[in-house]
Structure formats: structure tokens, C-alpha cells
Give the backbone structure.
Amino acid sequence: MDENIRNVRSYKKTPVFAVPEIPEYFKHLLPSTSTSSLPSSPTDLQESPSTMLLLPLGSPFNVLINGSSSQPRLRQSQQSDEQKLAYKFEQMEGLLKDSGFDSVGEILEVLFYNPSRISGESDPRGSFHAKAVSWFLQGWNKIKMSDIIVLIYGHKHSAPSPSSPHYSKCHAPFSTSVSPLEIFHAHPSLFSWATNLVATHVHQEINQLSCTNLPGDENHFQASTNGRRPDHFKLVTWQTLGKFNISVLCEKYKVHAPVSWYITESMAASCKGGFFILKK
């Protein structure tokens, strides 16, 4: 039986492991080559499994979010209000320096360009320009025109200094003979413009009250008609004088001429905390 036994040589092959190349985004999570304890071959993987350094690889997107020395950040850190304001002032400096306009006045003139609706000419403004100005003037923005007027009127450079040759215009900011267009500084110019605007409005209110002569209206009486349309005018009689009432007339003025009444009340009554005090 021993003669029938043959020696069979074993050809068992040693398995070969192919280690793929480490992706680029994993290399940022691994230690340097000099201190790395990763196995360099499949044999090391089998011989020293306990000496491996297990690293939390995490997600490769953390590298893209957190960034590295060679890649810019996609998300900036939270900025304080002071930092945001400083950035806006820096942007304003560049805007005014390289805007191409001659002055701030020219910027505002072009910004608030008012296209004529009667002439039929096309609006030269862009759609974003027209919409932004419209929203601001209609009060849809957080900062409104009232805020801007207060900033301009109270600005330290809006009024001339005592040594300026234009100081007299600020010392006496209103004159019936000086137009707001002739005043250089913003503070007296705004004051003169507002005074003329209110005066024109008051004149219209008083003129409307004096010309109103409707049935039952007691605003305007005449001594005689001079033979012209006697039914159209109201004449002064003892009966109408007996019905005259100051309180009723005041209430009527408050409704039909509120600006005129407010100015009259400002001249006649004391004011405290924005409210008029009526003395008895």
C-alpha cells in the first residue's frame, strides 16, 4: 500500500491585498508621515493590529466647511454690529471716491430724478433704481425720509460757523426777500424752505375759509351786496350776530384749517411736552 502513496506538493498561494490610494479629503484628517502609525503593508496589518492608531475620520464635508490653509472658507464667522458698521463705512468711502459723480449733490440729484408723466418721455432710470427710490419715498424701508431730514438738519456742517461770512443767514434763517436757493448751508436753507411751504399752505386754508359761503355756513358775512346777486351772499344781521359762537367757530377751524389753527394756538398758548396748556 505504501507504494501507491504519492507525495503531493501544496501550491497554496499567499493572498495579496491591494490598498487603494487615500482620497485627498482624508489626508487632512490623518497625522503627518513621521508620526503616523498606519500600517505600510498588509503584513503589518496582520502582525500589529493592536498598535494601530484609530482616528475618527468623520465626514469629508467637514474639510470643505471648516476649510484648510489652501482652501477659502465658504461660511464667514458672525460679525458684531460695530464690524458691520465699519464695513459699511469702508464701502461708502470707496463708493464716493470711485463713483464717477462730481459731488454728493449730483448723486442725490440723479438718485431722486423725477420723470415727467406729461411729456411722454421715457424714464432713463433702471428698474432697480426706480423701485428702490419708490420704496424709500413711500416709507416701506426701515429708514424713512423723516430720519434723513433730521440727520441733515442737525448735522454739524449744515450751519455756518460764527466766523463764516454766511453766518448772518443762519442767525436770521428766514427772510421774505431771500430764496432758499440763495442760501448755501443746509440748515438755514431747509428752515427757509419749510417756512415758505407752511406759509403757502396757511394762505390756501384761510382763503378757502373766507371764500366759502354755502347754505348754513357762517364763516363769511358781508355788510351789503351792492346789488350783485343778493341771494348768493350772506349779510350781517342782528340775528346772525346773536348766533355767533367762538367755541363753534374754533371747532370749525380745527377741522377745515388745521395748520392755521395749530400756528395760531402756538402763538396764543403755552406749550409743555408737546401739548398746549390752556389757562383759565
